[in-house]
């Protein structure tokens, strides 16, 4: 029995049936369901706490305080999501934050060196710690969970030793600018800072151009994209939310220095993960280690540098935290690793590795920050706050597993 293709007019072979345009739209809208859902959840959470607190959570001063108080967690989340994408975990970052802050304090306060020397000493210590972890994980083959668990104990003990189990403060004025400084007044303004608004407006314009170019590229490869009206609505919504955030900062003390540093890190690491060979190799290792090895990826070297990078970012967080608290404490960084891990998973990273984005981890970190800040404004007990955070993390991972099962069923 011979099967022939259906014939069209004049005996020509009929073209295959076209997909319904709505199917393309539906596919484009659901392709990044989880990531999009994170941003919607963040906006909904902000609106909920604004309603409950009578608008106190959206005051200019409180918005600025959120940026200052949780910036170091977001720095840690950038490194942690990369570690998780590669299929590892790092339990030591809180202890590394404490140790690098202590080294900076000893250098500047005890030995009287300039504040920038303390910064360099902390960064060097972070790189060495990262190399230590990377050696054991990448070249000896010990699982990262064990290596960093040992590191958590080891570097906490070294912190107590370096500080002689007592706090050390204060830092000189220049060091405090890192976490508590502001840029304002450059372009004037009456009751608000024009420079802050201009910087954020340029950021929105850059985002719009980037999204438009990405849309054109997908269309060039005949990939489904949402309708132009929905695309424009997305850009408008992002622009309104970002400029509302900028107005709050501009109405308070201006543009925080630490926010500039965080923005630079986010852009740099997003570029690295999405547009460099090293970033693609990280995804390949986390997605399928055997296939990555057979494809020529130098797995050991990549894993080594992943942990070196995590050590560096832990040192940056240690500098920011010690600057924020104007000193070094033996108990600094306690539970920071859990906040960073939670931010990565809530932001879309997969438990099995191979999936995740830097911007998603930032959204997850902001969800944790907004929750913590909102519950503090409501006067909720610290123990209950921990319960809520734990449930949110559990639900985020459960949703990841459910999403994969649903995708597999289809």
TrEMBL record:
CDD domains: TM_PBP1_transp_AraH_like. The keyword Transmembrane helix applies. Residues 1-21 are annotated as: Disordered. The keyword Transport applies. It comes from the Bacteria. Its main location: membrane. Keywords: Cell inner membrane, Cell membrane, Membrane, Sugar transport, Transmembrane, Transmembrane helix, Transport. The chain crosses the membrane at residues 38-60, 66-86, 91-109, 115-135, 142-163, 192-210, 231-249, 255-272, 302-321, 341-371. It is found in: Cell membrane. It is a multi-pass membrane protein. Part of the binding-protein-dependent transport system for D-xylose. Probably responsible for the translocation of the substrate across the membrane. NCBIfam families: GguB. This is Xylose transport system permease protein XylH. It comes from Paeniglutamicibacter sulfureus.
